[in-house]
Amino acid sequence: MLPRKSIIPEEFAFSPALVSPIPRKPVFRDRVNKARFIAKSGACNLSHKNIREQGRFLQDVVTTLVDLKWRFTLVIFSMTFLCSWLLFAMFWWLVAFAHGDLDTNRKPGVEQCFTNVNSFTSAFLFSIEVQVTIGFGGRMITEQCPTAITVLILQNIIGLIINAVMLGCIFMKTAQSHRRAETLIFSRYAVIAVRNNRLCFMIRVGDLRKSMIINAVVRLQVVRKTTTPEGEIIPIHQIDVQTESAVAGNSIFLLAPLIICHVIDKDSPLYDLSAMELQCSDLEVIVILEGVVETTGISTQARTSYVNEEIQWGHRFVPIVTEEEGVYSVDYSKFGNTVKVATPRCSARELDEKPSILIQTLQKSELSHQNSLRKRNSMRRNNSMRKSNSMRRNNSALAVPKVQFLTPEGGPNLAVT
């Protein structure tokens, strides 16, 4: 869900002076347009090429049919039934031809193997009636042809198998688990800020449906290109990232939108990254949400990823859950909204080595907050004084002037009208 713009109070504004007091050498690297491993929609950005053993896909026909696109699945569904009808129509026509039912000069006392099967078209219609059990009553098998009875049993068995497989594929395709994942949403941006005096990486997840995801588990992975000491290049090196609920197995109760927090400690792959180095890095943070759908009992998985441009340093998510008339209300229009907060620009390693950086940053933030409050109060007083002065001038302009009248004796007489 895309975040919407909102009016942010000035007391939450981020001061440009809130930077790390430790001088740090800028790190600049040529930024190359790196392909994402996981798209924002959760699709895997991976292309398979030069697969020589294509026959392995036919060993699991059901999974292959389910993975195909809908247009291919419908074509295969229709062609399977049509081919089976044509195949058995050929069998029925051969049986009728061998028995002599198609001979127009047959003797009048000889019983037929079929009734009203005189051509291939009628044999095709009879094949459809047998497999889909329509039974119009015009065409039927007699007891004079054991071969036809055998073909009838064989077509019924094969027809049931085709119905079970094809209808099962259609059901599995319509009830795929990723359909439920469409209503599991992630914040467009991830944030890095201080929480409980520790530098943390945070995202927000939510579920738009009222039916819950049971045993929801959130896993984070950092994917980056690394080189081993032996010189081996690993293009996709996956590093697991622990969250705050790691002790409980990352299980969450996804009743309302939650903020998933990863504490950047010494075991974190983000431990040595500062705000400037993060902008030049090529890492990608993958978020995986797994759980069981309450209504169907099918496991589902939702995925997304965040690259360096989508990680906001020095921000935190705004609250979206409020209590209104005894009911908790969630405002999804602010789901991805963030606000700037005082955050050191240094790495978590430097923050652990010199805790005074955090104290100085918080003190500067408090001072800036107080200055902003004084400025707002002074502006309010000035505005109120301007309004009062303006009202006084307007009242004086509306005052009634004095008019002088002359009496018949010529003396002045002052009167106010």
TrEMBL record:
Any one GO CC term of this protein is: plasma membrane
Q: Biological process (GO) annotations?
A: nervous system development; potassium ion import across plasma membrane; regulation of monoatomic ion transmembrane transport
Q: Give the compositionally biased regions (Low complexity).
A: 380-396
Q: Which InterPro entries match?
A: Ig_E-set (IPR014756), IRK_C (IPR041647), K_chnl_inward-rec_Kir (IPR016449), K_chnl_inward-rec_Kir6.1 (IPR003278), K_chnl_inward-rec_Kir_cyto (IPR013518), Kir_TM (IPR040445)
Q: Where is this site: Role in the control of polyamine-mediated channel gating and in the blocking by intracellular magnesium?
A: 163
Residue span(s) of domain Potassium channel inwardly rectifying transmembrane: 38-176
Q: Which UniProt keywords apply?
A: Ion channel, Ion transport, Membrane, Phosphoprotein, Potassium, Potassium transport, Transmembrane, Transmembrane helix, Transport, Voltage-gated channel
Where are the annotated segments for Disordered? Answer: 366-396
Q: Which residues form the Inward rectifier potassium channel C-terminal domain?
A: 184-354
Listed under catalytic activity are:
K(+)(in) = K(+)(out)
Q: Which GO MF term does the entry hold, naming one?
A: ATP-activated inward rectifier potassium channel activity
Membrane topology reported for the UniProt record: Multi-pass membrane protein
Q: Where does it live in the cell?
A: Membrane
Q: Name one Pfam family in it.
A: IRK
Gene3D superfamilies for the chain:
1.10.287.70, G protein-activated inward rectifier potassium channel 1 (2.60.40.1400)
Which top-rank group of organisms is this from? Eukaryota
Query: Any transmembrane segments, and where?
Result: 74-95, 148-171
Report the sequence similarity comment from the record: Belongs to the inward rectifier-type potassium channel (TC 1.A.2.1) family.
Can you name this protein? ATP-sensitive inward rectifier potassium channel 8-like
Gene name for this UniProt entry? LOC107655555
